[in-house]
TrEMBL record, chain A:
Keyword annotations of the record: GTP-binding, Lipoprotein, Membrane, Nucleotide-binding, Prenylation
Membrane-protein topology: Lipid-anchor
PANTHER family reported for this sequence: RAB FAMILY (PTHR47981), RAS-RELATED PROTEIN RAB (PTHR47981:SF43)
Origin organism lineage: Eukaryota, Metazoa, Chordata, Craniata, Vertebrata
Protein name, UniProt field: Ras-related protein Rab
Cell compartments where the protein resides: Endomembrane system; Membrane
InterPro entries in alphabetical order: P-loop_NTPase (IPR027417), Rab29/Rab38/Rab32 (IPR030697), Small_GTP-bd (IPR005225), Small_GTPase (IPR001806)
Native source organism of the sequence: Carlito syrichta
Domain of life, source organism: Eukaryota
Biological role stated in the UniProt entry: The small GTPases Rab are key regulators in vesicle trafficking.
Protein family (similarity comment): Belongs to the small GTPase superfamily. Rab family.
Any one cellular-component term (Gene Ontology): mitochondrion
TrEMBL record, chain B:
Gene field: CHML
Swiss-Prot/TrEMBL GO biological process terms: intracellular protein transport; small GTPase-mediated signal transduction; vesicle-mediated transport
Role according to the record: Substrate-binding subunit (component A) of the Rab geranylgeranyltransferase (GGTase) complex. Binds unprenylated Rab proteins and presents the substrate peptide to the catalytic component B. The component A is thought to be regenerated by transferring its prenylated Rab back to the donor membrane.
Keyword Cytoplasm: yes
GO molecular function terms listed in the Swiss-Prot or TrEMBL record: GDP-dissociation inhibitor activity; GTPase activator activity
Listed GO CC annotations: cytosol; nucleus; Rab-protein geranylgeranyltransferase complex
Family, as annotated: Belongs to the Rab GDI family.
Keyword Flavoprotein attributed: no
Organism of origin: Carlito syrichta
Protein name: Rab proteins geranylgeranyltransferase component A
Keywords, ordered alphabetically: Cytoplasm, GTPase activation
Main location: cytoplasm
């Protein structure tokens, strides 16, 4: 068996108002399940999804949910740092969550840009499309126009419940990130210290020394 | 986001500085319901770092008069029954004083009308974006600032009388935009060339325009403002220090990256030179003679286990460390290096403290690099936020821009029951942790604070040129006269992500005896030269040039004992603001001590499960065990699997 030639690791953010289905989308995409009564994710920063992009390329995606801060909109810089792309999610049955989309996008662009100064790729997700009340989405042209105006690379009607379009949306985002990445190569810092990797002390914590 | 806060918590933490943030992470990690509040619009309190425009907004906020009308006391009565009483909290922060700003970089005429930070412009401001909105009016400093430039010797307190109305434009973006336009016309107030030097200016620019291609102007700095992450406190991490150990142990380190401090510098006889500190450095040093090399190695080897050789120093117990060094057959050169650059102590420090400091320095060498220190990429201000993220991931709720009116104390038990916020909402909890600056004057009437003098400089060159322009250096400048304080200087290059390309960010720190400018200006003048002056000189300047400078005094509330505060309930715990020391040991110790007081049986910041260990391959479905919540106690191993996000080789094709 031949090993893949390239491996990419990307941090992706999943943002949007409370209750639009961010965590459901991540769980559907990564864990292949859906629960209508999920509990807020505790203790986990991100979920990891491995994509076999093509025979030579493996893409590992870290999907970062916004933790307990989201309700009051006070994300730490740690959350944004080094992200390569984002999904902004709204709930088609609640127009107010769509109105917030532009806010989230401009907030994102003000706090995060690629090392070359360009904005990161963002895909807009119109979630809960299975509920059939999609007032906004019927007008696809209008959505295309909206995406163009606000700098989204694309939009998808999704349903975490019915597993509609989530894989497609992700492929769209990854495609744009891969296309962007060639001009980012030179910006990687060579001499950064990561204490948890370089230090032999990592293994000395009580929980993991035994394994 | 109109939702109101929940009203029941286990722990309420007020202030997002380092000790409070470590405590928030530690409490949340043990399953406590944590509410973490800050009255400011940014994380970190006096530990924060800012973009350039963010820093200008911060300056402006402190220079505003205190006449901001607080429509507080929103019917506190109804919320506090007879059996309880209120302890008011301070309405306005008073930890920062004597702010002075100087701009030396020239003002480019042709770019004047577009002086704004790239990316700072917001189409749709909202509560989520308001931290950046405050950056909008970055370009306008109060006009009164002009006085700094026309009258250099003016005493600091004159500058506080700015009565111009300044809106921070949190909600009204149009107003801010207009202001920005106004500033386009008034920008000359920022330049040191303003006023009497006006005529020279143009000719000077003509002469030097071609010679200096990379001339950095004030508008460059403003435009590239987002490249700056300017810390209010200047600290480094000892590579064997408490903070780095805590970061590793708690795995909060996965949110942070560091760079090695690359050089230890010394300032002697008006010259900056590099101090050899590792064995390799010592032997490669061109400044030291063979004899000196042997003397230095011998002494440093002794310091590493000085406790084993009490006979070497017992007889000198009454001496200061500097007197002791004189007896050790070390040349003046070496004595200076050891005293100021390695032990980094004051001349008067005791022999034991000096040996201890030297030993600590030597022990930290080589863990990560050639010097004992690390600096966080993006600045020290990242570190509190890393702990906040950890707290949030474990369910902690964050709320910035949230003012607290008072504690509510039960008269009978004397315990604090709740806080009341600026909306008049009552929030109940069992434990309350509060940063010192939130406590009222009445509570602090017996407290005597120290002060820290700080300067932040943007310069165009390093204080000591080297092959690589990407150096991170620390320098201790000994006091000019005995009895005064040494000044600690750290110089950061652009690869630390704290300043724009072709500039250096220089931090100066000392304990205050006067205002920050009075304490630090002489050192600044020894090391740097103002931008405008050298432009008239034809010859290449030897000193780096100052583009911009900020001075301020910060209150140092470390070392205040709990008993100095009046009438605080026993379940209210106080954290101090930043101390003046180089490391972060004080904050970590304080957080751990308070945590153990509150939760004596709980472990302090154990490692969480590593999310990288939870892998669901896209190709084969893995069913999830129903009924489990999402804490998957995977074994954390240090194998390749836990590779981190930014390891460079991951981005490269193999």
């Amino acid at each position: 068996m031949q090993a893949p030639h390239k491996e990419h690791l990307y941090k992706l953010l999943v943002i949007g108002d409370l209750g639009v289905g961010k965590t459901s989308i991540i769980k559907r995409y990564v864990h292949q399940n859906f629960s209508s009564h999920y509990r807020a994710t505790i203790g986990v920063d991100f979920a990891l999804k491995v994509l076999h992009w093509d025979p030579e390329t493996v893409v590992r995606l870290q999907l970062w949910d916004i933790a307990g801060q989201e309700r009051f909109g006070n994300m730490t810089r740690v959350y944004y740092r080094e992200a390569m792309g984002a999904f902004i999610v709204f709930d088609v049955t609640r127009p107010a969550t769509f109105e917030a989309v532009a806010k989230w996008k401009s907030d994102l662009d003000s706090k995060l840009s690629l090392p070359n100064g360009k904005p990161v790729s963002v895909v807009l997700l119109a979630n809960k499309c299975d509920q059939g009340k999609d007032v906004l989405i019927n007008n696809g042209l209008k959505m295309d126009q909206f995406c163009k105006e606000h700098g989204f690379v694309g939009w998808f009607e999704t349903s975490a419940k019915e597993n509609i379009n989530i894989d497609e949306a992700s492929r769209c985002l990854v495609k744009h990130i891969l296309a962007n990445e060639c001009d980012l190569m030179e910006s990687i810092e060579p001499d950064v210290v990561k204490p948890h990797l370089t230090s032999s002390k990592v293994v000395s914590c009580s929980g993991c020394a035994k394994s | 986001m109109a939702e109101s806060l929940p009203t029941e918590f286990d722990v309420v933490i007020i202030g997002t500085g380092l000790p409070e943030s470590i405590l928030a992470a530690a409490c949340s990690r043990t399953g406590q319901r944590v509410l973490h509040i800050d009255s400011r619009s940014y994380y970190g309190g006096n530990w924060a770092s800012f973009s350039f425009s963010g820093l200008l907004s911060w300056v402006k906020e402190y220079q505003q008069d205190s006449d901001i009308e607080e429509e507080s006391t929103v019917s506190r009565q109804g919320l506090i029954p007879e059996t309880e009483e209120a302890i008011a909290l301070r309405k306005k922060d008073e930890t920062i004083q004597h702010i002075e700003v100087f701009c030396y970089a020239s003002q480019d005429q042709d770019t004047e009308d577009n002086v704004e930070e790239i990316g700072a412009l917001q189409r749709n401001p909202s509560s989520v974006a308001s931290t950046t909105i405050t950056e909008l009016d970055s370009a306008c400093l109060p006009e009164e600032r002009q006085s700094y430039f026309t009258d250099y010797e003016m005493p600091a307190n004159h500058t506080q009388k700015s009565d111009k109305e300044i809106s921070l434009g949190i909600t009204d973006v149009e107003e801010s935009l207009e202001k920005e336009k106004d500033c386009g016309d008034n920008t000359c107030i920022h330049t040191i060339l303003g006023g009497h030097k006006d005529e020279d200016k143009h000719t000077v620019e003509d002469n030097t325009g071609q010679a200096k291609k990379n001339r950095i102007t004030f508008s460059h700095i403003v435009k590239e403002g987002r490249r700056f992450n300017i810390d209010l406190v200047s600290k480094l991490l000892y590579s064997q220090g408490l903070l780095i150990d805590l970061l590793i142990k708690s795995n909060v380190s996965r949110y942070a990256e560091f760079k090695n401090v690359t050089r230890i510098l010394a300032f002697r006889e008006g010259k900056v030179e590099q101090v050899p500190c590792s064995r390799a450095d010592v032997f490669n040093s061109k400044e030291l003679t063979m004899v000196e090399k042997r003397m230095l190695m011998k002494f440093l080897t002794f310091c590493l286990d000085y406790e084993q050789h009490p006979d070497e120093y017992q007889g000198f117990r009454q001496c200061s460390f500097s007197e002791y060094l004189k007896t050790k057959k070390l040349t003046p050169n070496l004595q200076h290096f050891i005293l100021h650059s390695i032990a980094m102590t004051e001349s008067s420090c005791t022999i034991i403290d000096g040996l201890k400091a030297t030993k600590k320095f030597l022990q930290c060498l080589g863990r990560f690099g050639n010097t004992p220190f690390l600096f966080p990429v993006y600045g020290q201000g990242e570190i509190p936020q890393c702990f906040c993220r950890m707290c949030a991931v474990f369910g902690g709720i964050y709320c910035l821009r949230h003012k607290i009116q008072c504690f509510v104390v039960d008269k009978e038990s004397g315990r604090c029951k709740a806080i009341i916020d600026h909306f008049g909402q009552r929030i109940n909890a069992k434990y309350f942790i509060v940063e010192d600056s939130y406590l009222s004057e009445e509570t602090c009437s017996n407290v005597h604070y120290k002060q820290i003098s700080r300067a932040v400089l943007i310069t165009d060159q390093s204080v000591l040129k080297a092959d690589s322009d990407q150096q991170i250096s620390i320098l201790l400048v000994p006091p000019a006269e005995p009895g005064a304080c040494a000044v600690r200087v750290t110089e950061l290059c652009s690869s630390t992500m704290t300043c724009m390309k072709d500039t250096y960010l220089v931090h100066l720190t000392c304990s205050s005896s006067k205002t920050a400018r009075e304490d630090l200006e002489s050192v600044v003048n020894k090391l740097f030269t103002p931008y405008a002056e050298t432009e008239t000189n034809k010859e290449e300047p030897t000193k780096p040039r100052l583009l911009w400078a900020l001075y301020f005094n910060m209150r140092d509330s470390s070392g205040i004992s709990r008993s100095s505060y009046n009438g605080l309930p026993s379940n209210v715990y106080v954290c101090s603001g930043p101390d003046g020391g180089l490391g972060n040991e004080h904050a970590v110790k304080q957080a751990e001590t308070l945590f153990q007081e509150i939760f004596p049986s709980e472990e302090f910041c154990p490692p969480p499960p590593n999310p990288e260990d939870i892998i669901f391959d896209g190709d084969d479905k893995q069913p999830e065990v129903p009924g489990t919540n999402n804490i998957i106690m995977a074994t954390i191993d240090s194998s390749e699997e836990s590779k981190n996000l930014e390891s460079p080789e991951k981005h490269l094709p193999h």
